[in-house]
Amino acid sequence: MMEDSRNEYSESIGCQIIKQDDVTQEGLSGLKSCPPDGLVWRLAICSSHALYSMGGAKSFAHVWFEFVQELRYRWENSLRIPG
């Protein structure tokens, strides 16, 4: 028996924002943000591209592995993390 792979939260957030005429704090409480061109922003862009355009979970896992490897290398060698 396969489980439904859809995320129940993404649908409810989208509907909540679309149905409201004025955007309130309550309507956006489930959304998070980060500064543009920052490390988290770039990771989110790469991750979403890997998930939806490059093959799904397998390509996302590869991106995540490389990201963690790079962080580990920079941490062990006391190098700054750009972004």
From TrEMBL:
<dbReference type="InterPro" id="IPR045700">
    <property type="entry name" value="Rab3GAP1"/>
</dbReference>
<protein>
    <submittedName>
        <fullName>Rab3 GTPase-activating protein catalytic subunit-like</fullName>
    </submittedName>
</protein>
<dbReference type="GO" id="GO:0005096">
    <property type="term" value="F:GTPase activator activity"/>
</dbReference>
